[in-house]
Specification:
Helix content: 25-40%
Number of helices: 12
Oligomer: single chain
CATH topology of the largest domain: Tumour Suppressor Smad4
Strand content: 15-25%
Shape: globular
Largest sheet: 11 strands, antiparallel
Structural class: alpha+beta
Length: about 425
């Protein structure tokens, strides 16, 4: 039955029971008016486009706030939701970028020459201030490079963990694999400058740019001709039991991760026994090797190896994946990005647990300690080589060989079935063989 007509019938019945209130068609709910208008415009729309209209949004259109004939969301200004169309997320500079941080893969000879070419071009052609890590300047292979000696004195350096780069960097360029992008995320624990990642590493799932024509590609980005993928990060805070009791002035561990935070049993031979809370409510207890809490970007990293689904980075969500759970029914789950997860050791846990953040900063958790995970308001703006959709599916195909299999042959290509059909029986085939003989 046509839903638009059904809604109009319901409204007519509503008018019949409310004549005393002098209700009219102008008083109809917005959804009824909208459906009536869509029904009137539908023939012209289909004639014009030849198909049904589609939304461009990768997340979803803003939800209609009326549910069925009677239910709706209570009007409350604090509940207004805005879902931005990722296709509209394009890079723009409100002033020309001056400083650029170049991060290269360490201990890789193949990256040295591209690094020298890029740095020299940025300084001499684009007149930019280039920052590199101090350890790069100490690389003996790089020091002996004749091209590097020309620009060495013009480089600005910093030391990881000692120098603060906040508000000093306008633009980041990564040369290497996915680890360079993860390192850039760890360097900036608040707002992150736009990141352009060149594929010069092993896998390169997060590095969509090829280095061959880097001059043209970097120029396009500097002129603002680029799409962005906003990769959400997780804010992870470890609250120690002793800190809560003594209220010490020592700040808790507070880190932003791009891929995942992992809680596992470490070197212990015993199962992890971890309690999982969502917005203060106990959800389940994890008994197994551990637990992975990942972003959509991290869903294609450790999580997918543990059996999780792959989520597009524009989807606002948090993935929770058990590691080798001692249960046949414990499957990975996806929860909304706005919730807070709290992870604690169960009081019956036989050993401590280990926590790591994007594979770094491993720490030990004891009974009474808690790890709190929320979605950060500071994403990593990753620059796209093409767009948000093409880059992701190209990476799935090239790096993970997603859905790769041999093509099924057409029936005409099968020599043993050319004279048979799906309705043939063994008796009929035997009779045909006798006639042929």
């Amino acid at each position: 039955m046509d839903l638009a007509r059904l809604n109009r019938c319901r409204w007519s019945r509503h008018l019949a029971f409310n004549d005393r209130n002098h209700c009219s068609a102008e008083d109809a709910p917005p959804i009824v008016k909208q459906q009536c208008k869509e029904e009137e415009d539908e023939p012209e729309r289909r004639k014009r486009s030849g198909t049904w209209p589609r939304t461009r949004s990768l997340n979803a259109p803003s939800p209609i706030q009326q549910f069925g004939p009677c239910g709706r969301i209570m009007k409350n200004s604090a509940m207004v939701m805005t879902i931005q169309d990722p296709a509209s997320q394009r890079l723009t500079w409100y002033k020309p970028p001056l400083t650029v941080l170049v991060i290269k893969k360490v201990r890789d000879v193949s990256v040295l020459q591209p690094f020298v070419q890029l740095v020299k071009w940025l300084i001499e052609e684009k007149h930019m201030v280039v920052f590199v890590e101090q350890t790069v300047m100490d690389d003996t292979l790089l020091i002996n490079n004749p091209g590097f000696s020309v620009v060495k004195e013009k480089l600005m350096t910093f030391r990881d963990g000692k120098d603060d780069l906040t508000d000093k960097i306008d633009f980041i360029i990564c040369l290497g694999g996915d680890g360079t992008l993860l390192y850039a995320s760890l360097l900036f624990q608040q707002s992150v400058p736009p990141v352009m990642a060149f594929h010069l590493g092993s896998l390169g799932f997060l590095t969509p740019f090829e280095f061959d024509n880097f001059q043209e590609q970097v120029t396009n980005v500097l002129e603002g001709h680029a799409a962005l993928t906003l990769r959400s990060r997780l804010r992870c805070i470890i609250v120690r039991k002793n800190d809560e009791l003594n209220r010490t002035s020592k700040p808790p561990t507070n880190l932003l991760v791009l891929n995942e935070v992992v809680i596992d049993r470490g070197p212990s031979p015993y199962l992890s026994n971890i309690d999982l809370f969502l917005d203060g409510k106990h959800i389940t207890s994890v008994q197994g090797d551990g637990l992975i809490v990942s972003t959509p970007t991290g869903s294609t990293a450790y999580a997918v190896a543990a059996g999780a689904s792959m989520i597009h980075p524009s989807v606002p969500a948090i993935m929770v994946t058990p590691i080798c759970p001692h249960s046949l029914s414990f499957r990975p789950i996806v929860v909304p990005a706005g919730v807070e997860l709290k992870i604690m050791l169960n009081s019956d846990a036989r050993s401590t647990a280990c926590v790591s953040f994007d594979g770094r900063y491993q720490q030990e958790m004891h009974v009474g300690d808690s790890l709190r995970v929320t979605t950060s308001v500071y994403p990593v703006p990753s620059i796209c080589a093409q767009d948000q959709i093409s880059d992701w599916f190209d990476s799935l195909a090239e790096c993970l060989h997603w859905n790769v299999r041999k093509r099924q042959k057409h029936l005409d290509e099968l020599s043993d079935l050319t004279h048979s059909s799906s309705n043939d029986t063994l008796d009929s085939l035997d009779h045909t063989d006798q006639l042929d003989s």
